[in-house]
Amino acid sequence: QVQLVESGGGLVQSGGSLRLSCAASGFTFSRYAMSWYRQAPGKERELVARIISTGGATNYADSVKGRFTISRDNAKNTVYLQMNSLKPEDTAVYSCSTFIGTRQWGQGTQVIVSS
Length: 115
Prior knowledge:
0% of the residues lie in helices and 55% in strands. It has no helices and eleven strands. The chain has strands at 3-7, 10-13, 18-25, 34-39, 46-51, 58-60, 68-73, 78-83, 92-100, 102-105, 109-114. The strands form two sheets. Strands 2, 4, 5, 6, 9, 10 and 11 form a seven-stranded mixed sheet that branches. It has a four-stranded antiparallel sheet with strand order 1-3-8-7, with no helix packed on it.
């Protein structure tokens, strides 16, 4: 079955950086677009970044453009989210996701940015 396992979250000061990873299994990773979403307390889940199957195109939420970079390694079945210049408003649970018939989700990893 599809498995998505995120890692790399943690506590960081404002202005700092974190790199999230999502290891995928149970499907042909190289054929599917991958996305990172986040959900802050009391807020709806929002799309942060998306990358197509080949890695040749990406898109980002306006709130993270220029600070976050999504990438993937199809040989390692892993998608990454490099987050720089973090702000307290980036605090959220970050989840990777793909759509295979239905939307598939990982368990999420917590990111806390202190001011």
